[in-house]
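Changelog-linked ticket: magnesium ion example.
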Amino acid sequence: MTLPFYDAIKQFQDAYLMFPAFQAAFEQMESNLKLYRATGMAQSLLVFGESGTGKTSLGELFAGRYPKEVLIERDLIPVLHVSIPAAATIAGTVESVLARLGDPEPERGTVSVKTARAVKIAKGCGVEMLLFDEAQHIQDRGHSKSQYFVGDWLKTFMDALKLPVTLMGLPRTQSLLQVNEQLRRRFTHRLSLSTTGDGRETTNDDSLALFTSLASVLPLPLDPRPYTWQELGVRLHFSTDGRIAYVKQLLISAYVKAVDQGCARISISELTDAFTTVIWPSGVGSLNPFHKDFVFRSLDRSGEPFQIGDIHAVVQSRRMK
Ligand SMILES: Nc1ncnc2c1ncn2[C@@H]1O[C@H](COP(=O)(O)OP(=O)(O)O)[C@@H](O)[C@H]1O
Ligand SMILES: [Mg+2]
């Protein structure tokens, strides 16, 4: 493989696309930050989406827009970007916050000592927005006690700092807010990355738009034949669920296959193989959205790549208590 080949892949990997829902969330975060800077009002936001919809990338892009500054007397951290650890406890969560704030000994002290220290350092570092990724981990332990505890801790921490907060997580993060009334009131504003930015669910056209904008970064053109562009859009939507991560993986794999085979364009045959390679090994024949015999239904049943998350299961299990 030649250098331009690797360059093309690198360029493609690094390309950020401001697709509508991503842009809407980014703009809302910016507007919350501006509102806080201008008035001191703290507005909070929940950004949710299935895995691969771009939550972590959005957080990184936003935090990168307001980077940490190292001054002689202190560090300035305008946006504090923290990933909530798996099986979050209050101690684990506050330790992650302290580590991000540059505390040399995040484990030192009781939970209330740690929390007080985190508040003090955050104020000292001029934090203006708290951004918590993997927010579903706050409730992943599932049992009501820990759920209330971490949720309550978050509320107390927010009250002490009075800063705008952005929570990012899987759709089931909404059930975390549901059980904690005070958090629910603070996060009335919610945006989904699986929609079009104006709240509509993504459609075939949106998937096609995402795909063609990303494909334009690659040096080979796309060939929809024997389908029309419109039909390709439908098939793309079924094959990626409109999630940017899958769109990217599918395109890279199809591009590599096309170059391998010396093709001048990326065609349906490469997309068919790419789906099986990078999205679903069992996705062949009628279960491959690019195959002529595709069944034209969402691949969200048990064992399929877009199996629906367990938000209903979580809500259900709480009701049964
Ligand atoms: N706006 C975007 N433009 C281009 N690629 C993106 C964008 N958002 C996410 N990606 C790509 O999709 C993949 C998954 O994104 P990630 O942010 O980790 O999703 P999530 O946190 O929702 O699971 C990453 O490889 C990233 O490069
Ligand atoms: Mg993520």
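Closing comment: Example verified and attached. Residues 204-321 form a domain with the Helicase, Ruva Protein; domain 3 fold (CATH 1.10.8.60). The chain has two domains: 20-192, 204-321.
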